[in-house]
Amino acid sequence: MFRNDKIYSDFVSDFTRYMYGLKSDEPFKEYIFLCVGSDRVLGDSFGPLVGEKLKNSFINKYNNLFVMGTLEKPVCATNLETEINNIYLNNKKPCVIAIDSALSSEKDIGKIIVNNQKIQLGKSMRGKTRLIGDISIRGIVAKDYRIPTSNFKSLQSASLYTVMQLADIVAEGITNTIKYK
Predict the structure, then answer these.
(1) Which of 10, 26, 66, 86 is least surrounded by Cβ atoms within 10 Å, i.e. has the fewest?
(2) Tell me, what's the pLDDT at 179?
(3) First to last CA, the chain
């Protein structure tokens, strides 16, 4: 696999800092990786691709790590509210790591943004938005035209290479961060 080592090391550094710097009144009991997106739109498949890779890494290894949103069972506009409600109904003191694709300027395509703020899902399409996450990870997959129809076309024509590279970096970085904790 080709991997941009600078993007990978920057991601691991940022993710590690936020993951282990989380502050809470009481300790988190479970960690939910909420990988948002659709497998039907190339640029929007970043989240489910990460979810698929994490699911394969985490299966039967950790009893407090859960992945929601895979290629088989995506978390997208049609079921997002239900899945978010399920997180808080079915888990005790969860830490939500929200993962989604993002649009930005052309010079930012291929970057990964990690922070300890909630992610605003659905922002680029100007539909109903939802804030979620204790940590957010956004992979910038295409250009933001600030017009919903143009943004949808931008997501549809995103580079598969870029989406796959970002998904590989994020999944590998998360897996290695957790493995070496």
Answers:
(1) 26
(2) 80
(3) 24
How does DSSP assign 46-69, residue by residue? HHHHHHHHHHHHHTTT-SSEEEE-
Q: What are phi and psi of 137, to 5 degrees?
A: -130, 120
CA distances from 120 to 25, 95, 101, 115 (A): 24, 17, 11, 12
Amino acid residing at 34 = L
Neighbour-count burial of 6, counting CB atoms closer than 10 A to its CB (0-12 exposed, 13-18 middle, 19+ buried)? exposed
Give Cβ neighbours of residue 150 (< 8 Å, ≥ 6 apart).
none
Cα-Cα-Cα-Cα torsion 125, 169, 14, 136, nearest 10 degrees, comes to 30
- Mapped onto helix, strand or coil, the DSSP state of residue 84 is helix
One-letter amino acid of 109? I
Q: Provide the mean pLDDT of the chain.
A: 90
What's the mean pLDDT in 7-28?
87
**Residue 60 Cα to chain centre, angstroms:** 21
- Which token pair is 3? 């991997």
Tell me the pTM.
Answer: 0.92
CA-to-CA separations, 179 to 8, 13, 56, in angstroms, rounded: 16, 14, 14
pLDDT bracket for residue 65 (50, 70, 90): very high
